[in-house]
Amino acid sequence: MAEVRTHKITLVPGDGIGPEVSAVMVAAVEAAGKKFGAAFEWHSFEAGADAHAKNGVLIPEELYKSIETNKVAIKGPTATPIGGGFSSINVAMRKKFDLYANVRPVKSLPGLETKYPGIDLVIFRENTEDLYAGLEVMVNPDIAQSLKIITRKGSTRIAEAAFEYAKNNGRKKVHSIHKANIMKMSDGLFIKCTKEVAEKNTEIAYFEHIVDNACMQLVMNPYQYDVILTENLYGDILSDLCSGLIGGLGLVPGANIGKDCAIFEAVHGSAPDIAGQDKANPTALLQSAVMMLHYLGENEAGTALQSAIEKVYAEGKTLTGDVGGNAGTKAFGEAVLAAL
Ligand code: NAD
User: Fold this and answer.
1) Domain locations in the chain as residue ranges
2) pTM over 0.95
């Protein structure tokens, strides 16, 4: 009998809709793996707002240790209070494990009618610097200061990751998105670095767009973009904009990738407005799991899971409310399992 390959995965179900979409994801990954001789050992941890309220601990030390050992994690969304309270655990984990590349593929699903059919672009968002460094002070009660940190190292390595990806995946263009007309030093350094990397990779066409123009261009003609390379904050905003092009936040997956480990998670947040109601679309986390399967070298299982998701969309009978259907989270998950 062929040997089963077992992968140890750290799992954070997260807050809001997180546990609901995570349950669907775990079942689908197990089923896809089983078909091709892979098994999964899930090391699950409570972390985030609910864990903080329940146990007074935001990120348990064992979670850090588990990611250090397993090197691969997948997480549901975690909530972060607005305008005060604790800092984002996502930002903390990206910094802790130096997960510098946030890779977010935005691809239309078959059968889903949207204003822009046939979208296929990838966002490479720098994931450790920029205003997300969280270096803020109240200078006095009426002046708040937030430091924007951009480094040569951070800008160069995300540009190298974007160009490497473009070359290995048949992509033709990289657009570096910035606001260097205003932030001449910080964004100026970012585009200086991305241009230097472009000059070493001349087989890929290189363009620069100012971020406000890029927003307009994405709505007018998103097809001109192939790989979007950008800083942390612009990347976050552009990701949600691009999600809207293909049918919403329920669909777009993501990976936070560093030198030694990776954490996979959807673009969307904890969606408190629909949490606990069997309404969440698990597609974004399922497609994040597809990225994880490929990262683990389980390419057959990854391809099979992606095909099963696409089959459910092509049939169009069991879709969640956010994309015009009337199925629940669990029913959608069962349809994916049946398609597998
Ligand atoms: P959100 O992404 O949670 O929700 C925005 C809108 O999209 C809501 O209407 C929601 O119902 C919808 N939506 C999101 N995911 C969906 C899904 N899978 N299926 C169907 N509809 C979905 O953004 P928000 O409301 O601005 O943020 C809520 C919380 O999530 C905040 O605390 C924020 O800090 C957190 N957040 C976490 C992450 C993360 O963990 N990676 C990312 C973004 C936001």
Assistant:
1) 1-102+249-340, 113-246
2) yes
